[in-house]
Amino acid sequence: MSTTTVGRLTFRPLDPQSDSELLHTWVTDPKAAFWLMQDAKLQDVEREYMAIAAAEHHDAYLGLHDGEPAFLMERYDPRYVELVGLYEPEPGDVGMHFLTAPSEIRIPGFTRAVITAVMDFLFADPAVARVVVEPDVGNKAVHALNEAVGFVPDREIAKPEKTALLSFCTRAQFEAATGTTTGGAA
User: How many angstroms separate the CA atoms of 167 and 97, rounded?
Assistant: First the structure.
């Protein structure tokens, strides 16, 4: 849980059956173009998140803003998911994706508060030493957000679905960038 200037941000495990309809509206919204599910049908979204729920090395969380669904976060082990063969994982690496819900209401600083809460959630696990991300090279908005919480770009990598900017953020980099102290080991 994280209480910020934008409100209270919490996480709960995603329920693919009951949350799929909501997620479908999020991932097919034009704002979510980099999520690569623009043409997905409801059953495609449900199938994707059922697979994630069943996976040993990948899980998804629904993020709540003051108790209401507002963002999605996926956590994965890059040794087995997304980045296999594309870089040399280090002990304590965890991969992450996040998506804020489309909204007519603009809350200044909301997306930055969300990525900060996501990173704090990940680093609350003392086994996590570094967070790995691989956003599309064209997603300049997320590159700026990543930099704001301490990510350092490493290199471009070719994934089947996109050219990605492989970036890393250690616990120390996150704490220095955000002025926060995480609950895990240093």
Answer: 12
Q: Give the side-chain half-sphere CA count within 13 A for 36.
A: 12
Domains, the chain, in order of start with CATH, read 2-131 (3.40.630.30)
DSSP string, 21-70: HHHHHHHTSGGGGGGS-TT--HHHHHHHHHHHHH-SSEEEEEEEETTEEE
- Best CA proximity match to 167, nearest among 137, 124, 126: 137
Q: Is the pLDDT of residue 183 over 70?
A: no
Between vectors from CA 98 to CA 183 and to CA 182, what angle results, nearest 5°?
Answer: 10
Beta carbons of 131 and 94 less than 8 angstroms apart: yes
Q: Give pTM, 2 decimals.
A: 0.91
> What would the pLDDT profile of 91-129 be if each residue is shown by its tens digit?
999 999 999 998 877 888 999 999 999 999 999 999 999
Task: Tell me the CA distances in angstroms from 149 to 63, 116, 119, 142, one per residue in order.
Answer: 18, 7, 8, 11
Give residue-wise pLDDT tens across range 126-156.
Answer: 999 999 999 999 999 999 999 999 999 999 9
CB atoms within 10 A of CB 12: 11
Query: Tokens 């956590």 map to which residue?
Result: 75
For 74, the token pair is 């996926």
- Residue 153 near residue 143 (C-beta atoms within 8 A): yes
